[in-house]
Amino acid sequence: MASTSSDNRQRKKSFIIRRQAREMAKHVLSMCEEEKRSNHFTFTVNQALDRAVYYTGLSKSVLSKIKKEPTDQQGHLKSPSKKGKKYPRVKDLNVDDFDRQVIHRCIEEFYLTKKVVPTCKKLLLALREKIDFPWGVTSLRKLLKQMGYKWQKCHSKRRILIERPNIIYARSIYLRKIRQFRQNDRQIFFLDETWIDNNLTYKKCWRDDKINAILTDTSSSNRLILVHAGSRSGFLDGAKLLFKAGTVTGDYHGQMNNVNFEKWANEMLLPNLPSNSVVVMDNAPYHSVQENKVPTKSSTKQVMLDWLTKNKVQASFSMRKVELYDLIQQNRTPEKTFKMDELIKGHGHDVLRLPPYMCDLNPIELAWAKVKRLVREHNITSDFSLVRLKEVTENAITQVTTADWCGYDKHVLALEEHYWKKDGLMEDVVDSFIIEVREESDDSTSNSSSTDNSDFDSD
């Protein structure tokens, strides 16, 4: 009885041989039987690696890697990780503005050239032929959402990828307004901020044929913040602001915020702008501090009362917040107003906001690319002192010529025409796809659920 129970315990401890191990064992046995039939060994004893390849059926590289793998105290190899390849979280996706515009144009190509609705899988394959995009379908889908795209539900689970209507609307309004300003021969000035480091690396950025190198900012001990404005005639005289980032003393406090930006606009931009100019800027937070910001439902009662008093609406502290909020909704303006816009308009100029995700429509981005390239050409060892970095940057700014700015302006004009035409075409094509999808879905509902799943596959 004792020996029987011992055998049972030993039998319970036996391990399960997985499919791959069983296949390898079967391969080894068949090779041994073949050598038995031929009555000689295929490889000599000295050909150890060749013999192992022959018996196991694995490649030499695989066996060499296995040979180098560490073992535990019992001499067993560790099991490989089942987690698979790790992809960065969506918030860590390093997709620059250049690549985002490639994605935008790739979607246009699906609709206008290929005449098909892009799925995430198809779009991912197309993108990997154009740019370095190491992430998967799930990350691409979340990136598209960040870029202002959504899936339009047509019927049941059938969906097509479209740009959000408010994004298209903002771009259409911008293109219409800037076209009108150009036709009226108004002077248009584009403003922006950038960073200049004592350590720069090459990377993609918006450029034209005259710029043969493109750079991006990297971390460094010395960093400058550059704020400027320019038009097709060149940088605006007297509007340049260049100061060290990270400092806590001086007129500017080491970063560009709404206080510093307003100070720059009052002291450097507005005094030097020609009369009746147009100022174009993006929607950075420090550009977009709201004037007379409307309280929300979660605002305190005092904030609500202050807003109502400022807007000459009668209210008392005895009123409940829901009553105060109703008064606010009745007396608010339909559109947001920004403090910077009102400041610039107060000096007789017009303000135009770039549409979301459209940094390529700002020609000053091309000027930044040339400035950074020139800094890099003089920075052989990437260890400029702050004084030297500022000196080289000042010199680089002067080398962005009027001819360069004319080229940048022509490049942006061509882009404006491209977007104007493509948006008009996309409206009709997307509408036709929505109608076709609806009709197909009405004819055969069963097919809709099977074909749509391709848009929602995981990485």
TrEMBL record:
GO molecular function terms here? nucleic acid binding
Bias (Low complexity) ranges: 444-453
In this chain the Tc1-like transposase DDE domain maps to: 251-381
Q: Which domain of life is it from?
A: Eukaryota
Where are the stretches annotated Disordered?
A: 439-459
> Which InterPro entries does the protein's record reference?
RNaseH_sf (IPR036397), Tc1-like_DDE_dom (IPR038717)
What this protein is called in its record is Uncharacterized protein LOC111354941
Top-level taxonomy: Eukaryota, Metazoa, Ecdysozoa, Arthropoda, Hexapoda
The gene it comes from is LOC111354941
